[in-house]
Amino acid sequence: MKAFGHTRATRLGEPDTLIELDIPTPEAGPRDVVVEISAVSVNPVDTKLRAIDPPGDEPRILGYDAVGKVVAAGGQVRGFRAGDRVFYSGSAQRPGSNARFQAVDERLIARAPRNLNDEEAAALPLTALTAWELLFDRLGVRVGEMNSPDALLIVGGAGGVGSILTQLARRLTGLTVITTASRPETVAWCEKMGAHHVIDHRRPLDQELSRIGIPHVRYVAGLTATGEHKDAIVRSLAPQGALAMIDDPGSFDIMPFKRKSLSVHWEYMFARPIFQTPDMAEQGHILGQVTSLVEAGLLRTTLHDVLGPITLENLLRAHALMESGKGIGKTVLSGF
Fold first, then answer.
1. CATH number of the domain that 18 lies in?
2. 119 alpha carbon, distance to own chain's centre
3. Same domain, yes or no, for 92 and 143?
4. Is residue 285 part of a domain?
C-alpha cells in the first residue's frame, strides 16, 4: 500500500524530507481495527518526530489524526465492525495515518460525528484529546461547573489545541476564557471559537490582563512559547493557581512558582497509549463525548485549511505551514 514517512531525521528542503513508500497493508491485532484512511490532519508532533531518527531500521510513517472506515477487526474487538466511520489520533509508537490503511487499537477510537464531513472531522481528534486532558485531567476543572468565578488564560489561542480548548472551556465550564493572539486574522479566529477576551502575546501577559481588568487568573494553558512567558505567567497566576503546558521549553525553572503555591503540569496525550495505562480506553470515551457535543451543536470543527489530497507534495506543504508558526486552526488533507 502507499504510505508516506521518513528514514532518518530530516529538515524541510532536503530531498528526502518525506518519501513515498510501498509497504504491506497492516493486519489487525486482537484489539485492533484496520481503517481505510479518507482524511488526515497535520500536527506539530509530525514535524517534531520527523526531526528525530526512526527507531530501528524501519521507516517511520507519520500522521496522528485520521478519519476513515473500518475494514477489518481483531478477534477481541467488540465495539466496532466493518463499515463504521471512525476518527482517532492513534499512538506515536505505531505506524501513523499517512497511509492508505492503518491498524489502531479500538480503545483509542470513536465514531466520527455524523454532521461533519471527513475533512472537518479529521481536524479534531489529537487536539480535542489534548485540550480535554489538559483542562479536566491536569488542571482539574470540573465538567459542567458553570458558576465559576475563575478565569483561564490560553497562550496561543489560534492554534489547533487553543481552538478546541477555547470551545471546551466556554461551553462546558463557567470560566472566563482569555486567549492570546497577535494578528487581526488570529484575533478574529479566537473570537469565533468563543473567547471572552483576546490579548496580545507580543506584550507582557500580566500587563495585558490588567488592561482588560482581570489582573490574575486561576489557570494558564501554555500551548506555545511557555518558557518565554514564564515570568509573566507567574505574575498573572493567582495564589494556588495552576499552569498546564504542552510545548517544549529548552529548560524550565519551576522554583518561581513555589511562593504562590502554584502547580505545574505537563500534558502529553500520547502518554496513555505509549505506556498502555489501565485507563487507556478513556481516550476513546473522550472522543465519543466530543462526537456527541459536535452533533448537539455545542462544539464546531477547527478546520481552517484543506490542502488537497494526501500526496507527498501536499504533506510537505502542510509541514512547512506547521513550522512557519502561521497556521490557524487545523490543516487537513483528504483522499488519495
1. 3.90.180.10
2. 15
3. no
4. no
- Residue 240 per-residue DSSP state: E
State how far the Cα of 298 lies from the Cα of 35, in Å rounded to an integer: 28
**Phi-psi group of 63: left, alpha or beta (phi > 0 → left; psi -120 to 50 → alpha; rest → beta):** left
Q: For residue 277, is it within any domain?
A: no
Q: Are 226 and 233 in contact (CB under 8 A)?
A: yes
Would you give the end-to-end CA distance of the chain in angstroms? Answer: 11
What's the predicted TM-score (pTM) here?
0.97
- Point out the domain boundary residue: 245, 266, 287: 266
Reading the chain (336 residues) residue by residue, the pLDDT tens digits are 999 999 999 999 999 999 999 999 999 999 999 999 999 999 999 999 999 999 988 999 999 999 999 999 999 999 999 999 999 999 999 999 999 999 999 999 999 999 999 999 999 999 999 999 999 999 999 999 998 999 999 999 999 999 999 999 999 999 999 999 999 999 999 999 999 999 999 999 999 999 999 999 999 999 999 999 999 999 999 999 999 999 999 899 999 999 999 999 999 999 999 999 999 999 999 999 999 999 999 999 999 999 999 999 999 999 999 999 889 999 999 998
Can you say how many angstroms the Cα of residue 59 is from the centroid of all Cα atoms in its chain? 24
Burial of 22 (0-12, 13-18, 19+ CB in 10 A): exposed
Within 120-236, strands assigned E span 151-155, 176-180, 197-199, 217-222
Distances (CA, A) of 159 to 180, 199, 218, 220, 304: 10, 15, 22, 16, 10
Please give the grid coordinates belonging to residue 78: 467488540
